[in-house]
């Protein structure tokens, strides 16, 4: 979660039972850094690091987590217009996973063709492949489901074909307060890439619903935003 999930925050919540911790989202180039500044100006939290600091900053944050939690994989969720800065993050030596953000829906990010707007790029598969082919870390793609003008199942296949290791999907469905379980089921059945389901895991009963879709793993954001998780995920 931008502006929130730094090493300090993640070290506090990993003991609830998480085996992957995601830093960020971080903006990695001038257009996305400018967009982050505008988001901050209207009162939303964002990480705000200049270009010459961001790569060292991420490496230091990963160190801070690994010192305390040796068996946890650390991922960094990142935004950029071109693949190169994402490749540079994927080659940070202690980072396990670089996660390409095809998810943010803030106007400032979408208007520069980033975040969920990436899902509409004609060259999305090539964009992801360039990263997957040139990094030492694993690659995750975080996509938002049910974005108007996109076909989520088709994009899931495209991400699978791109050589990414994980499809992390926020299965948000407009007008519904739970994840689109049906879509998650369909995608899990249809693709071979590891699927990490996200959205509305806010109780043990929703953990159960999420797992029953067949996903390989799940992620939690808002339910842990306070630094406390009020339900047990270790029974599943
Ligand atoms: C304050 C806040 C900031 C977020 N920032 C990011 C981000 O930077 N990158 C990202 O991929 N998702 C971000 N998200 C989305 C969450 O990671 C997650 O996909 C979404 O909240 C749905 O999952 P949940 O129901 O577990 O909260 C953010 C969510 C919140 C509430």
Description:
The chain is α/β, with parallel strands linked by helices and 236 residues long. It has one domain (7-224): Alpha-Beta Barrel (TIM Barrel). 37% of the residues lie in helices and 17% in strands. It is built from 9 helices and 7 strands; from the N terminus they run αβααβαβααβαβαβαβ. The protein has a 7-stranded parallel beta sheet. Strand 2, helix 4 (83-90) and strand 3 (97-102) form a beta-alpha-beta unit. The longest helix has 18 residues, at 51-68. The radius of gyration is 17 Å and the shape is globular. The structure holds flavin mononucleotide. Flavin mononucleotide is lined by residues 1-2, 4, 24-25, 77, 101, 103-104, 142, 170, 198-201, 220-223.
CATH topology name = TIM Barrel
Tell me the structural class.
alpha/beta
CATH superfamily: Aldolase class I
CATH arch. level architecture: Alpha-Beta Barrel
Largest beta-sheet characterization: 7 strands, parallel
In which range does the helix fraction lie?
25-40%
What is the string of SSEs from the N terminus onward? HEHHEHEHHEHEHEHE
Name the beta content range.
Answer: 15-25%
> What is the count of β-strands?
7
The CATH class name reads Alpha Beta
Bound ligand species? flavin mononucleotide
The backbone outline, from C-alpha atoms, is globular
> How large is the radius of gyration?
17 Å
Q: Give the helix tally.
A: 9
What topology does this entry show?
Elements: H1 7-13, E1 20-27, H2 30-41, H3 51-68, E2 73-79, H4 83-90, E3 97-102, H5 107-110, H6 124-132, E4 138-144, H7 152-161, E5 166-170, H8 181-190, E6 194-198, H9 204-212, E7 217-219
Parallel strand pairs: 1-2, 2-3, 3-4, 4-5, 5-6, 6-7
Helix pairs in contact: 1-3, 4-6, 7-8
The structure holds flavin mononucleotide (FMN).
């Amino acid at each position: 979660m931008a502006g929130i999930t730094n090493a300090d925050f993640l070290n506090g919540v990993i003991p609830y039972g998480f085996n992957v911790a995601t830093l960020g989202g971080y903006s990695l180039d001038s257009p996305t850094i400018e967009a982050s500044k505008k988001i901050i100006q209207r009162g939303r939290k964002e990480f705000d690091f200049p270009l010459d600091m961001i790569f060292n900053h991420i490496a230091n944050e990963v160190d801070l987590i690994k010192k305390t939690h040796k068996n946890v994989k650390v991922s960094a969720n990142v935004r950029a217009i071109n693949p190169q800065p994402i490749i540079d993050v994927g080659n940070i030596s202690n980072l396990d996973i670089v996660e390409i953000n095809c998810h943010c829906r803030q106007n400032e990010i979408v208007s520069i063709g980033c975040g969920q707007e990436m899902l509409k790029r004609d060259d999305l598969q090539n964009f992801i492949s360039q990263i997957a082919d040139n990094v030492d870390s694993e690659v995750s793609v975080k996509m938002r489901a049910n974005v108007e003008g996109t076909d989520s199942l088709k994009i899931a296949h495209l991400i699978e074909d791109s050589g990414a290791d994980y499809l992390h999907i926020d299965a948000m469905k407009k007008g519904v307060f739970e994840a689109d379980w049906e879509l998650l089921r369909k995608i899990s059945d249809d693709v071979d890439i590891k699927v990490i389901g996200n959205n509305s895991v806010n109780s043990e009963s929703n953990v159960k619903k999420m797992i029953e879709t067949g996903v390989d793993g799940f992620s939690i954001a808002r339910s842990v935003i306070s630094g406390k998780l009020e339900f047990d995920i270790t029974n599943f």
